[in-house]
Amino acid sequence: MRLRLVPKETKWDFFSRPTLWLGISGALILLAMVSFFIQGLNFGIDFRGGTTIRTESAQEVVVGEYRDAIAPLGLGDVSITEVFDPTFDEDQNVTMIRIQAQDGEEAVTSDVIRSVEVALQAVAPDISFVSVESVGPKVSGELIQTAVIAVLLAIGAVLIYIWLRFEWQFALGAVAALVHDVVLTIGVFSELQIRFDLAIIAALLTIVGYSLNDTVVVFDRVRENLRKYKKLELKEVLNLSINETLSRTMMTSVTTLLALLALFILGGDVIRGFVFAMIWGVIVGTYSSIFIASAALLKLGVKRDWSKPSNTGGNQFANIDA
User: Fold this and answer.
1) pLDDT value at position 314?
2) pLDDT of 242-261, one tens digit each?
3) Rounded CA gap, 33 and 182, in Å?
4) Parallel, antiparallel or unpaired: strands 128-135 and 50-57
5) What does the pLDDT look like over 190-220, one tens digit per residue?
6) DSSP letters for 255-307
7) Hey, which of 51, 104, 172, 320 has its CA 20 to 30 A from 180?
8) Residues 276, 280, 281, 282, CA torsion sign
């Protein structure tokens, strides 16, 4: 017997309480914006500036022990990553240690670097600092600007893609869902003050792609059903289309979440922020594809005078039976 998270055929009315769902989303967006403007984001080293130290040791690297040795120094945000390279010798163990810029300083002072070296020598007596590089506030500011541009360009590209493939009403519905997902993701990072770095920007772009995939599956079925059921109201067509793709949507989301939960629990501190963003993004992305994008399409309306079915190949995804 095949596993099903939802019945093969459902007849749920997703628009029986549209005001409730839109109200919840609106309240969460408002809360996210208030938190962002009051608390701001807990920027990591990538955006705040700091110093990167490359170390080498013949002793095997244990990231937890390195972190415990540095923690008493009270240096704030410290990121420790073991570097793997097939060209390294067997006794060449390399790490990258990133320390945030201290208050009033553009870079970590030589005294702080020396104290870090002494602390790490208690764990690995033969440790050596191969290189020490600093990232100033100017570079960090440029990274923030570039990250914002990257996210905006991704959303703009989605707007054009959906507009060309479907109609402008579909494009605005998809973009509304994407903006909803990005704003809520940034909001939860602000509210929980989780470290926000370049890895989270990568997660945001991944969330945009994941949410778009779900939305296109639903919209492709909507377009197909609009041609098939010409006398049904748009609300009924939307309900029918979401129900027909619901099994596939839920199976995709749950299997993705299972992999992400394993990474969150076992992956360690280095990728935990990225994985948390992905988990949150999958949840809100699935929600927005069903409720936000479709609700926006219902409000905008859509014409039904296509002359012939599209040959873009998109329907093959909408017809997958999970």
Assistant:
1) 42
2) 888 888 888 888 888 999 99
3) 12
4) antiparallel
5) 988 888 877 888 888 888 888 888 888 888 8
6) HHHHHHHHHHHHS-HHHHHHHHHHHHHHHHHHHIIIIIHHHHHHHH------S
7) 320
8) positive
Question: Whose structure tokens read 């002359």?
Answer: 307
Phi and psi dihedrals of 99, rounded to 5? -120, 130
The 10s digit of each residue's pLDDT in 218-241 is 888 888 888 888 778 888 888 888
- The answer to whether residues 162 and 216 touch, using CB atoms and an 8 Å cutoff, is yes
Handedness of CA 59, 63, 71, 111 (dihedral sign): positive
Alpha carbons 250 and 252: distance in angstroms, whole number: 5
**What residues form DSSP beta bridges with 43?**
196
Length of the chain: 322
Alpha-carbon span 175 to 320, nearest angstrom: 24
pTM of structure: 0.71
